[in-house]
Write a structure and sequence with these properties.
His_Pase_superF_clade-1, 187 residues, Rossmann fold, alpha/beta, 6-stranded mixed sheet, 7 helices
């Protein structure tokens, strides 16, 4: 499918499942698990071909390859930097650092883990969205990046980030023209 003149069509594809997604852990740079690889390969006909970009993390490059995409690495599609919480589950962090976790979940400008705040992630993803020329792009990235793109597209406030759930291999379509975005659902 080609985009009409002046229109950008983005298909955001979340990477497949990993050991961290199964454990509900803050991810490191881990590979897909078997289910993630099989699911991405099965999804390939629905995603199609064309211009593609992906985050550099292994789970994204493996998903892009399983989808049959020749994707260019884009550093703006990187996952949120979870700092010292990387590799730990939400429950582990909550037990060890309950005040820090509450601050992070309650204040989008907070980064008690020493990584990236949600506000910083939203700004990075907004910049990425603003940099697209007309045409169709498939982007393989992370749940946090897709959440941020949805929040930006619908003009929601930063705390709405926590109200968007993105499962492994979820797809979100955004259509943009002149800096304005629309969120589309395609079954």
């Amino acid at each position: 499918m080609t985009a009409p003149s002046g229109v950008t069509r983005l298909l955001l594809v979340c990477h497949g499942s990993t050991p961290a997604t199964v454990r509900a852990a803050f991810p490191g740079d881990e590979p897909l698990d078997g289910r993630g690889l099989r699911g991405a390969a099965a999804l390939a006909p629905e995603v199609g071909t064309g211009q593609a970009a992906c985050a550099a993390e292994l789970r994204c490059t493996q998903t892009a390859a399983a989808l049959g995409l020749r994707a260019e690495i884009d550093p703006l599609l990187a996952d949120c930097d979870y700092g010292r919480w990387r590799g730990r589950t939400l429950d582990e962090v909550g037990a060890a650092e309950p005040e820090a976790l509450a601050a992070w979940l309650g204040d989008p400008a907070s980064a008690p883990h020493g990584g990236e705040s949600i506000i910083a992630l939203l700004a990075r993803v907004s910049g990425w969205l603003a940099g697209h020329a007309p045409g169709r792009v498939v982007a393989v990235t992370h749940p946090a990046v897709i959440r941020a793109a949805v929040v930006h597209a619908v003009g929601a406030p930063a705390p709405a980030f926590w109200r968007v759930d993105v499962a492994p291999l979820a797809r979100v379509a955004l259509t943009g023209r002149g800096g304005r975005w629309q969120l589309s659902y395609t079954p």
